Amino acid sequence: MFQDFDRLIGTKGGIYLCMMAIIGGGPAGGSAAIYTAKAGKKTIIIDSDQGVTKRALLYNHYGVVEITGPDLVAVGLNQAKHFGAEVAETKVTSITKHAEGFTLATENGEFEAKQIILATGFLTDLADSLGLATKPGTEPRVKTIFDVDAAGKTNVEGVWATGTCAGFSVHTIITAGDGAKVAINLISELNGERYVDHDVLK
Predict the structure, then answer these.
(1) What is the CATH number of the domain that holds 83?
(2) Alpha-carbon distance values, 173 to 36, 39, 59, 74, 117 (Å)
(3) Where are the alpha helices (DSSP H) in 60-142?
């Protein structure tokens, strides 16, 4: 199931190592991964295929006349892969913080990451394993969200959250935009200066 993660930071004792682990491969997570991977931060997207976008038909996504949710997600993940991100189809069951970063236990093995972006949509079940602060959600059918600051940081250093699980509207254009915002904030912090990613016509 796993691809060749030796192209990331490497492996240690069968555990895959990376700079950036993004949990959730919907519009928020995929968008974040495009930016982190394009910025040269070795990125893995861990996705359990539980996102609600897979059931959507979209007529309101800016710049696209009509697209299905599954197609939107597939295009976004392919963009992230184009810039070097890897995708693992499995479910994260717990996260443990240690001196060098985090260990993510999944149904198919373990990963170690320096930074984590949570893009888990309606799901906040990882909060307890890491001591993440939560609060009541404000969007319809969203009961609980991660408590984040304006940049997307949670109360645990090195863990960020984006999209619906961070309190933003379920609309894909909004969650994708928030994923990009949080990724840019994270990259800027790692680089020690404000990061800007612009391509220009030749």
Answers:
(1) 3.50.50.60
(2) 19, 22, 11, 15, 18
(3) 69-82, 127-130
Helix 172-191 and helix 69-82, axial crossing angle in degrees, nearest 10? 20
Burial label for 87, CB within 10 Å (0-12, 13-18, 19+), is buried
Q: What is the pTM of this model?
A: 0.91
User: Per-residue pLDDT tens for 165-196?
Assistant: 999 999 999 999 999 999 999 999 999 999 99
Give the position of tokens 């892969």: 81
The pLDDT tens digits of the residues spanning 93-109 come to 999 999 889 999 999 88
Angle (CA) 107 175 180, round 5°: 90
Instruction: Write out the two tokens for 51.
Output: 């996102």
Residue 3 counted as domain residue: no
